[in-house]
Write a structure and sequence with these properties.
Distance between the termini: 94 Å
Shape: elongated
Number of helices: 1
Helix content: under 10%
Strand order of the largest sheet: 3-6-11-8-9
Order of helices and strands: HEEEEEEEEEEEE
Structural class: mainly beta
Largest sheet: 5 strands, antiparallel
Strand content: 35-45%
Radius of gyration: 35 Å
């Protein structure tokens, strides 16, 4: 009987090569072993956030508390041109709004402001006339000065002026900078002739 040693060696090499290919293609995975024991549960994490809502920050935003024909809690750049208004169709809710004529500013300074937070200013407004525009600003008061946090400009062609019809406006500020101690909200009105702006339901909240 004759043995071909060379052929037998080739067969062994081919078998080994086949096994390597099987392993590389993950065909040589053995049965799954038993699952190990579960490790101990870690401590519960804590989440803290300084920007928790503190509710409404504006004082007398509904303009309902009136003394001497003006809403309390507000500052006026030109008091003679700013008056409380309670005629039908001239307030959004409650019984009063505030009427602001040309080149007049209504403002309020609010404390309890947190650096690193964002704020939302909203309000309802209407033009008493067709040529009334408004600039609403949110200004952060910091240890080093004033920083504009947000501006909303309503052009006269975009201002609603129908009787009993108020438009709703809102803006989101930038992040209150480090060192912020207070915020100033202000409404600056420009109007032609004897025209004016009715403003009501002003709100400022943290997000």
């Amino acid at each position: 009987m004759n043995f071909n040693i060379e052929d037998e060696s080739k067969d062994r090499k081919n078998n080994c090569l086949c096994e390597v290919v099987k392993c590389l293609t993950k065909d040589c995975t053995g049965p799954t072993g038993p699952r190990g024991a579960t490790g101990p549960t870690g401590p519960t994490g804590n989440c803290t956030c300084s920007c928790v809502s503190r509710g409404e920050l504006v004082v007398n935003g509904g303009m309902e508390i009136v003394i001497d024909d003006k809403p309390t809690g507000w500052l006026f750049s030109n008091p003679d041109n700013i008056t409380s208004e309670n005629s039908q169709g001239r307030f959004h809710s409650g019984n009063w709004s505030i009427n602001i004529t040309d080149d007049s500013t209504l403002s309020q300074v609010i404390n309890n402001i947190e650096p690193g937070c964002f704020y939302e200013l909203s309000f309802f407004a209407r033009g008493e006339g067709a040529q009334v525009s408004l600039n609403a600003n949110v200004i952060f008061i910091t240890n080093s000065g004033y920083v504009l946090g947000g501006n909303l400009m309503v052009r006269f062609q975009d201002m609603t002026n129908s009787n009993r019809d108020f438009a709703y406006y809102r803006l989101i500020t930038s992040e209150a900078p480090v060192g912020t101690t207070e915020v100033r909200i202000e409404f600056i009105v420009n109007a032609n002739g004897n025209q004016s702006l009715d403003l009501d339901d002003v709100s400022l909240t943290s997000l």
